[in-house]
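Justification of computing resources. Each target in the renewal requires a structure prediction run like the one illustrated here; the chain below, 506 residues long, is used simply to show the kind of job we budget for.
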Amino acid sequence: MAGLMLLSACVHRTSPHGTIPETVTLTKEVLQDKIKGGWAGQAIGCTYGGPTEFRFQGTMINDYHPIGWSDGCMKSWYQNSPGLYDDVYMDLTFVEVFERLGLDAPADSFAMAFATADYGLWHANQVARTNILNGIMPPASGHWLNNPHADDIDYQIEADYAGLMCPGMPNSASEISDRIGHIMCYGDGWYGGVYVGAMYSLAFISDDLEFIVTEALKTIPEQSRFHQCISDVIRWWKQYPEDWKQTWFECEKKWDVDYGCPEGTFRSYNIDAVINSAYVVIGLLYGEGDFFRTIDIATRCGQDSDCNPATAAGILGTMIGYSRIPEFWMKSLHEVEDMPLAYTDISLNRAYALSFGHALQMIEREGGTVQEDQVTIVCQQPSPVAFEQGFEGHYPVASMWIHKPITDVDTIRFEGIGVVIVGNVQSPDRNYVAEVEVHLDGAPVETVRMPADSRKRRLEVFWRYRLPKGKHYLTFDWKNPTPEATLSLTDGLVYSDAPAPALNPY
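Resulting structure tokens:
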């Protein structure tokens, strides 16, 4: 308790006018309590929102819709649907590499650990895995020219570890995210993780949520869509301080768009980092430090409604500390803290210890001091990372409904500057890899490898951006068909250099 008093004194004495102090001293007890609170909050928030994940797309979850919680619910998820915790066990992939290879572990080491892990992946992560296994390493593996999902939420939900190991040092968290976040994301997708890492980092040294979300935003370039959206959310919160639903609605009107993800573009489904980060901030600001309200609001914003409350609760858990998370949530948590997360041998209790050790190393590395009972952090003023804009100059203008075996597809014609074609291969032989030679405008441009193994799958059969504007055509030659395998093309997106004009026949 003495440690908690010390933290409170530091924060209120040094940041009443919205400034970051030069140094902050915490007891090791408080530092560890906050790190534990971050991991615990993330796991609790993920569990609470799990039953609603992507069931509410472009619509909020109204108050009459019950979202339950019960003793034993976390253990049930752990045992029956462990994939729910992908945003926890994927963090642990990177934590384990730091523990094994040290703070200077190269990006390729994180990439290979991620690409060869046993867990399944989706969206930007899955494309990155495919890229890496085919020799396209970071940062190219996450670049939008090589990854149609580069703006998706993937790194945003995996960046918690970076903030937890960099207390009061948001720029150090950004440097770590530069190395790891570009494995799978670019531009707005990467900014989601940079921003989350900065909020976690600042939650160690401030108990003012407005300050945390506003100051962390300084790590994001002002000209980015991401910065503009979060700035709007903060402004709407001030305009409608008692009505999170109004802010949600304003956000939907202006920012619920997706330019990249083939699954979400032109649909209500939105896994883009911009809108989902906005929901995290809505939860934090309107939750006002109340643990339940924070995760409930972040969940009720919809879309990725397990990951968003996980992030919000992790940041709040870091701010208030493990010891101040209400007991209502803790009984279920305690039942799983010694159980390893799926696809890893690391439990939450071990994650607490590993991140604590990494935080001590980072504090010393960045000029702070670690003594027997306390640490002194040299705090950092947030500075913006490099500006990146994925899909620049590219506007989705048409979707394609194909849904045919590839052998029944003669020619796909489109007009624009870019195209994405989605498909899938199925075979009882998990080792089978379909090889498809793709011709663009009559010339062979790529031989695509499509594994039947779902863990290594490639769903985007082909994509190209920055084509000369005009008419183009694609043909596909399946080089190694077998009687047991099926290969289908399902959907497509077409891009041009300007939005498609709205139809107005009058």
